[in-house]
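B., you asked whether I could sanity-check this one before it goes into the benchmark set. Here's the sequence:
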Amino acid sequence: MRSSPKTDRHPDDAAPRRRFSLLRRTARLNREGGLQDAPLVVASGLVDDVDRLTAFGPAILAVRWGTTVLSGALAAPAFIEAEWRTVGWLGVIVAYTILRTAQPLRYTGDTKSLIRVLAELVLPILAVINTGYWDSPFVFSVLTALTIAGFARGFGFGLRLAGAATAAISLPALAEAGYDSASIRLAAQWGSVLLLVAMVAGYGRRISGEADRQHSVAIERLGRLADANTLLFSLHRVAQTLPASFDLDEVLDTTLSRLRDLFDSDAMAIILMDDTDSQWLVMRRHGIRLPDAIPHEELPAALREVIGSGEVGGAPNLLVGGGPGLAPSMASGLYAPLRARGAIIGLVAIEHGTPHRYTQRDVEMLGGFVEPAALALDNARWFARLRTVGADEERTRIARDLHDRIGQSLAYLAFELDRIVDSEERGDDLGPSLDQLRNDVRGVIGEVRDTLYDLRTDVSDEQALAAVLDIFAHRVAERSGLAIEVHCDQGARLPLLQEREMWRIAQEALVNVERHAEASKARVVWRCNGRSAALEVLDNGKGFPSGIAGRFDSYGILGMRERASSIGATVEVASSSGRGTRVRCLLQQGN
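And here's what the prediction gave me:
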């Protein structure tokens, strides 16, 4: 496995989000490899099929028809003088011009296109040699070929062909006419013209090439911005899940959905570490069959490598080396560790059936994606654990409530039944005792009903904390005889999780007043502006002895402090013997 796949072997991708990939990679190879005058290279690693002459098509067509018309005008006397050789070559030149108008010459840098460019020059040279050398009416047709050569491959190639054309025409002409000054001067003049035309065409190609390179750089930058925008959008969607959801299944589904949006894949999996037995649990999969748990030693080599390195890695060709991946039929892959709070908590595997599918850009995008995704997953896992611990604590509290209230009442009923049985054995009258027992049983039933109601009562989206406090205080007052005043702000609300914890704190404080304070009056105050809140429960009971009020090891007060801490609030307990108790919970949040 290599750390990053080679971009020069990446196949064309027709997906919309890859629409700039060909131009981006071509521009990068040209810039980094100095390929201005070499055949263009693309992702497949083969010679590119991009036509270098396309940009010069209108200029080539104008030059071709201009020289053809000029050649026809110069060859017109041949019809009158019956010089059929010249007429024949004119027909060939005109036919070739029409052919290249319908099917323009292409140059892509390969051998076949190079031969076509050379044939473009050979044809007018033959026409010139066979119709009078430099006096031929077809000399101007040579200019078209040299213009095409300069446009195709630049100065060097154009000048070499210009020199070769000059020699090919001048040497036979001088040998036939003699090396007099007029012939030499004519050859030199035309040779200079050919060289000048080749230079102008080469210069035109350089100007156009610089513009193309600037355009390619602009396209590459646009592609990078598009990729960055895609990544930022995905990171934003992942970041939205951090405060919005602590449900592990929801975070897993969201993460898999984002990965499928970002990366083209045939198989994908999210695997989390099981701390209890060091196995890897397959939490989500797409396009692949996997067991629910994978021992570490059975992980593919690519995944074990990213665990060791702690970095995102790519396997360009699993079929040649480093394979197989998670799916035996896959040919390339991306693998990333999910790292949170300094430890690897899971792995992401993305695989495709095509070799060299993923590029360094994909590696970078996955690296930017997994960090917030890992944090979201780790938060969800810890929340699930805390929820389990909270459920255990809630069960303990319920068991304590049942023991303190119902358990003691049932024990009393058991003692009464034993006393009644003993009275029966002594022959005592059982009527009054049974009437009292019946009343006691009814009282226990009422306690059970009240306890279950208290446990079911909770804040919800439909029922705010103010309403729940009012209902609960009324019930406590009915069953205990306490005179309870309730003063609550209406309308403004806190987030549901915070309201629920504040409600449980108020409930605990009121139950403590009911059971232990020996109070005759109590007051509950709730103030909330939607951002901050204050809860206060006061009574006129016996209070705590000096030095014990608010003690941290008191079970009820400890529970209230833990609930307050979980939502960023604080609890204050003030009391003294004979002067009652005040419990205050404050939640301060920024604007």
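One thing to flag: Residues 54-216 form one domain. Otherwise nothing jumped out at me.
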